[in-house]
Design a protein that fits this description.
The chain has helices at residues 11-14, 18-29, 36-43, 47-59, 79-83, 106-116, 130-136, 150-153, 156-173, 185-198, 218-225, and strands at 33-35, 63-67, 70-73, 90-96, 123-129, 144-148, 175-179, 202-206, 211-216. The chain is built from 11 helices and 9 strands. The longest helix has 18 residues, at 156-173. A hairpin with a 4-residue loop joins strand 8 and strand 9. The chain has 2 domains: 5-74, Orthogonal Bundle (Arc Repressor Mutant, subunit A), CATH 1.10.10; 83-221, Rossmann fold, CATH 3.40.50.
Length: 233
């Protein structure tokens, strides 16, 4: 099971205050970590008003104060995904099912399609079953593996429990992109639910068509955060 929603960032409540949103966007544009003076410059919010809004962001679990005067986003995803144009620190978290005679794993297909869109993850983590990994072993796939048993990969809550620690570690330091292709239907549902909880981008690959579908893109995430009204989208 995922942890209590009380400890998750409360984006909607915080961003109902326009100045809190401006401060969070300024921090995202700085790559997720910034000094007070840089956040002030980027947001245009002055002195005590900025202090007040940064405290709001801390209260709603969106921002942490690392040392006095330096702030960081608790999670780089989704705000750096939405507002940081460089987007160099990207992590991919996918699924891999049984081989069933395939020469190329779904993960490789996804990474090729992402590269065609200019997205090249620095970290590639994949959840699979021990049995499936054995079938793919001859290819010596260079992924970071999260392993589970066959009975776990068909259980939504078991899959969510398996990936929770990895998800939260990656969210902190990377723009995390989830791929719910492959494996089992319960695993696909689990990834979809995790993407919703953490407001992360999510893709699905049509292998036969060689096409990538964004199930959760920037516009959908902005809408989920309740901030679409602040933008011309």
């Amino acid at each position: 099971m995922m942890k209590s929603l009380q400890s998750l960032p409360d984006y909607k409540e915080a961003f109902s205050r326009p100045n809190a949103l401006k401060a969070a966007i300024a921090l995202a544009k700085l790559g997720g970590v910034g000094k007070f003076s840089d956040i002030q410059r980027g947001s245009g919010i002055k002195d005590s008003t900025l202090v007040h809004n940064l405290r709001l962001l801390i209260r709603f679990n969106i921002v942490e104060e690392e040392v006095k005067g330096t702030y960081r986003l608790k999670y780089k995803t989704p705000l750096c995904y939405l507002f940081n144009e460089e987007q160099t620190d990207i992590a991919y978290l996918g699924l891999l099912g049984r081989r069933n005679g395939r020469d190329e794993p779904e993960t490789d297909t996804a990474l090729k399609l992402l590269k065609a869109e200019g997205i090249e993850p620095k970290v590639v983590s994949v959840l699979t079953s021990i049995e499936a990994l054995e079938e793919w072993k001859p290819l010596k796939l260079p992924y970071d593996w999260i392993l589970c048993y066959e009975e776990e990969i068909v259980d939504i809550d078991a899959v969510k429990s398996k990936i929770q620690q990895e998800v939260e570690l990656l969210l902190r330091d990377y723009i995390l992109l989830l791929d719910c292709t492959s494996a089992t239907k319960p695993a696909t549902i689990a990834y979809y639910e995790v993407a919703q909880v953490y407001q992360a981008p999510l893709i699905y690959i049509y292998e036969e068509k060689g096409r990538l579908k964004w199930l959760r893109n920037k516009e959908l995430i902005k809408s989920s955060l309740g901030i679409t009204k602040f933008f011309n989208t």
